[in-house]
Every structure is written in C-alpha cells, then in structure tokens.
Amino acid sequence: RRSAGRDCSAKSCPPLLPMPFKTDVVNDQLQDLAVMFITKNPEGIQYEDDAKQGTYSSLFVWYGDQFKAASPDGTVIGYLNQFRDDPLPPDVVFLELPYNWKLNDIK
Fold first, then answer.
1. What predicted TM-score, i.e. pTM, was given to this entire model?
2. Contacts by residues 44-51 (CB-CB < 8 Å, ≥ 24 positions apart)
C-alpha cells in the first residue's frame, strides 16, 4: 500500500490525494488509494472478467519483488487480489502497460 502513496506525479502512478497524509488516518488513505488504483484506474489495471490476459502498470513489474513480499501467496496477482472484490484467476497473464509520464491531475 505504501507504493500507492509514493510521491509520483505521472499518470501511471496512483492518483494524488488532494490532501496531505495524516497519521491518524494514513492506513485508510493508503487503502483507499490502493483500491482505486487497482480497481478503478485504467493506468493501474485493465482486465475483463473471465479473460485470460490483462494489462497492468509498469509499477507492478518494476517493484514486483515488493508486491510479492506483501502478498499472502508471494505473487503480484495475490497482492492485487487483496484489494479486489472479485479475485483475479491465478492463471491470468498480465502484460506491462507502457508507462505514461504525463502529469497526474488532482481531481
């Protein structure tokens, strides 16, 4: 989840918060950012239910070891499934999305 809160201003990163992180709610803020990036942001993941293939952010490739270490089963898919209501199948193949260096907007 810390990856979701990293200072990054590129579109391929999780969206910027319109407020600072606060110690009393930082866990909720990080959780919300991770869920939004993994489930609602096309720069994070693109996957259609029952598909055998999807695409995801270069971040999941570049920092794959960190995501695997934070996963209950040691896989990136296992990490992603922690934030999804409908788990990804274990045999889905993800291709890397081209990294989008354009400025991430605050909305």
1. 0.83
2. 44/14, 45/80, 45/94, 46/97, 47/88, 47/92, 47/94, 49/86, 51/92
Residue 23: predicted pLDDT: 92
Indicate the range of 13-22, 27-36, 71-80 predicted with least confidence.
13-22
What whole-number distance in Å separates Cα of residue 19 and Cα of residue 6? 14
User: Which bin fits 6, alpha (ψ -120 to 50), beta or left (φ > 0)?
Assistant: beta
Q: Alpha-carbon distance 89 to 52, whole Å?
A: 8
Token pair in block for residue 33: 């950012």
Q: What is the per-residue pLDDT across 13-31, written as a single tens digit (0 to 9) for each?
A: 887 778 888 999 998 998 9
